Every structure is written in structure tokens, then in C-alpha cells.
Amino acid sequence: MKPTAAEVDHAREVVTHRRVLNIALPIVVSNATVPILGAVDTGVVGQMGLAAPIGAVGIGAIIVSAVYWMFGFLRMGTVGLTAQAAGEGDSDEVAALLTRGLLIGGIGGVLVVALQMPIFWAAFAVAPASAEVEALAQQYMSIRIWSAPAAISLYAITGWLIAQERTRAVLVLQVWMNGLNMVLDIWFVLGLGWGVGGVAIATFIAEWSGLLLGLWFCRAVFGGVAWRVWSRVFDGLRWLRMFRLNRDILIRSLLLEAIFVSFLFMGSGLGDVTLAANQVLLQFLMITAHGLDGFAFSAEALVGKAVGARQRAVLRRGALLTSFWGLVVSGVLVLVFAFGGGAIIDLMVKAPEVQEAARDYLPYMVLVPLVGLPPFMLDGIFIGATRSADMRNMMVVSFVVYVVAALVLVPTLGNHGLWLAMLISFVARGVTLGMRYPALERDV
After folding, report:
1. What's the CA gap between 355 and 362, in Å, rounded?
2. Cα–Cα nearest to 141, from 183, 112, 172
């Protein structure tokens, strides 16, 4: 459907600094609760004064999150397709996309629960940790995995809301889930003494409650009929387009998760203290990612609507304005990490040997916001434009660069080489996606 003149004018007039901030700031605030949650997870078990529980929560959460994020294509694909449908003025397709996303999320979650044992076995077979860490991580994962249908379906709901710029709803959703999770963490672990299992139970409850709240935010759609017009929902051509888009994003996401999972596993081979230190420092990387996500999500929504309305100038302006604000946030984070990183480490962990190890690698965290900005922002731009093939291909290149860097640097530099390989992979992804951006503009 060709966009009307009014829709084209709407797409053009709203690309301003104010609109970017209106979309981004609720996401930035909501995402701020995510690393805080990670810090609380680490901190409550850190009060036990042992390295093994910290490493167990870290490696258990990484494995479960990696499995869930294999379905991360659901959020990203839903944003791009929904934003473009909104830009084209196709409200029926906007509703049908929510139904498709929830169907994929529910079925995917059930499959994850059913396959939990081989998933856990494969994870530890690839890179086993110490016996104590592995046993505690197994306890954590065996509880947490039962929230898979809720956690995966939330990807679809979040993407659908972001595409329509309903980021205040996303803010409320994230604050509720993470706030509840933190309160339950403190109660279950420090109050009731449930240890690592208490952290998992807290997350399980928070994720299922989040799904219910997310569905409530979508209640206006369920009051209509478009979401259950099954001839449209199960339209073969639309499913084929969604499949191709999500297939490419899935491959990209698997390779990105392979980098993070292999990073943690290689760190586990360097000892429990190094594993715990890396888990603490990964919170800095998560702070950076979540701080920039608000502007990357803004790019997804703005670029998607611009592509739907066939407006190249709108696309370019949206990409530039969102990237400008991403640069501002990156600069602030560099200063915070440079001057306050040591204090943040001390707040998250009490074990002196872990504190000392984490401080040795803190300079790499100061570089993360700078080298992470280009790939994070370009991801948002390419997601909005549904240029999934480019994302897939450039991720393949970046993954190969990371593997080569790790093989060369880790044997000689140890954990320093591991962090350098991670940063090099960020640079490779930013450069390769940047090289593909001109073609993206030309095709609009």
C-alpha cells in the first residue's frame, strides 16, 4: 500500500531532537534497572564472601539468557516489520504482527523447557567450570528455565510497543519486572537464605508477572478483531517474509551470543576468581549496552517508519539524530567508568581477591562505550530498515575476527587478551556495518 500524503508529512515532521528523546529516555530509564538488577544479583550472592556463587549466578544467567536471546530476533524483527506497517498506514497488519509474535514466543518457550536437559549438558560439555560452580549454576538454571515462555513472548510485546513509540509502557514494564526481581532477590537470598536458588526463583516470578502486564498494555488491540483475523495472521507470504528476516537475525544473534558465551567460558578456564571478576566487569558492558539501547531503539522506530513511508531524507535524519544522542551518552559513561569504576566494583563484590582482579581489567571498561557506540547504533538502523542480510553477513565477518583475535591473544596475554578480543569484535562490527549503510539509503 502506497503511503498517503498525510502519512508522508507525518513521517517527515516528527524527526526532531524532541521526538528522539521522547522515544529514547523512557528506554534509557527502564534499561538502567537492568544492570542494577545484574548488580543486585551479583551483590546479594557476593555478600556470602565466596567466589563460587558469584561465578555460578554469572555463568547460569549467561547460559539461560543466551538460550532466550536465540529468540531475540522476535523483538528486532517485530520492531522493523511493525514500524514499517505503521509507516504504510496498515493498522490491521500491525495487530496481526502482535499475534504472530506471541505465537512464536509461546511455542519457542515450550520447546526450550522441553529441551532443558540437553541444553544444560551441551553448555557444560563445551566449557566446564569447577565442580562447585557447575553444581550451583545447574541449580539456578533448572529453576529459571521454566519462565522461558514468558521471557520469550516478552520480546514480541516489547518490540511491538517500541515500533509504535510506546516506550513509556516499556518503561513501566521493565521497572515493574526488575524492581520486583530485586526486592525478591534481597528477601529470598539475604532474608530467607535461599542462596543461588533464591536468585532464580525471584527472576521466574518477575518474568511471568511481566508477561501479564505486557498483555494488559496491548489490551486495546485485543478489544478489536484484526489480531484474530486468521487469514491474515497465517498469510503465507507474510510468514515467509517474517521467516527470512528472523532467520538472518537469528544467525546474527547466535554468533553474537557465541562471542559472549565463549568469553565467559574461556574466562572460567582462567580460575574462579577471574571468572567472578569478569562477571563483575560484564555489568559495565551491560550498563553501556542498555544506556545506548534507548537511542538504538529510537533509530529502529524512526528508520522503520521512514522506510515504510519511502522517505530517504527522514531515514538519514533519524539515523543522525539518534546517533548524536548516543555519542553524548557514551561520553558520559566513559567519565563515569574512568573516575567511579573502582567504587562500582567495591559495591558489587566483597571478596578482596575478586575486587583486585576486577580493577586490573577496569581500563577496558573505559573503552567499551567508545568502541561499542557504532555497532549498537548501526544495529538499530539496520533493524528498522529490516536489512537483516547485511546484519548477518557483517556479524559473520566480526565473529571470525573475534575468533582469530582470541586464538592469538589469549594464550599470550591471558584475560587481558580475552578483553582485547572482545573490543576488537566491536570495532569490526561497527566498521563493516558502516560500510553497508550507503547501500541501505540508496534502496529506500
Report:
1. 10
2. 112
Evaluate whether 170 touches 154 at the Cβ level (below 8 Å). no
Q: What is the largest distance, in Å, between two alpha-carbon atoms of the chain?
A: 65
Helical pair 51-69 and 352-360, crossing angle rounded to 10 deg: 50
pLDDT (average), residues 147-154: 92
Q: 98-126 pLDDT, tens per residue?
A: 999 999 999 999 999 999 888 888 877 76
**Amino acid identity at 299:** A
pLDDT tens for each residue of 156-168: 999 999 988 898 8
pLDDT of residue 12: 45
pLDDT in tens, 329-372: 999 999 999 898 888 887 777 777 887 888 888 889 999 999 99
Written as nine digits, the cell of 378 is 548501526
Calculate the dihedral angle through the C-alpha atoms of 34, 40, 41, 46, rounding to the nearest 10 degrees: 150
SS (H, E, C) the chain: CCCCHHHHHHHHHCCCHHHHHHHHHHHHHHHHHHHHHHHHHHHHHHCCCCHHHHHHHHHHHHHHHHHHHCCCHHHHHHHHHHHHHHHHCCHHHHHHHHHHHHHHHHHHHHHHHHCHHHHHHHHHHHCCCCHHHHHHHHHHHHHHHHHHHHHHHHHHHHHHHHHCCCHHHHHHHHHHHHHHHHHHHHHHHHHCCCHHHHHHHHHHHHHHHHHHHHHHHCHHHHCCCHHHCHHHHCCHHHHHHHHHHHHHHHHHHHHHHHHHHHHHHHHHCCCHHHHHHHHHHHHHHHHHHHHHHHHHHHHHHHHHHHHHCCCHHHHHHHHHHHHHHHHHHHHHHHHHHHHHHHHHHHHHCCCHHHHHHHHHCHHHHHHHHHHHHHHHHHHHHHHHCCCHHHHHHHHHHHHHHHHHHHHHHHHHHCHHHHHHHHHHHHHHHHHHHHHHHHHHHHCC
| Residue range 279-290: mean pLDDT, rounded | 84
Residue % of the chain over a pLDDT of 90: 30
CA angle 371, 377, 380 (to 5 degrees): 145
- 184-224 pLDDT, tens digit per residue, is 888 887 778 787 778 888 889 999 999 999 999 999 888 88
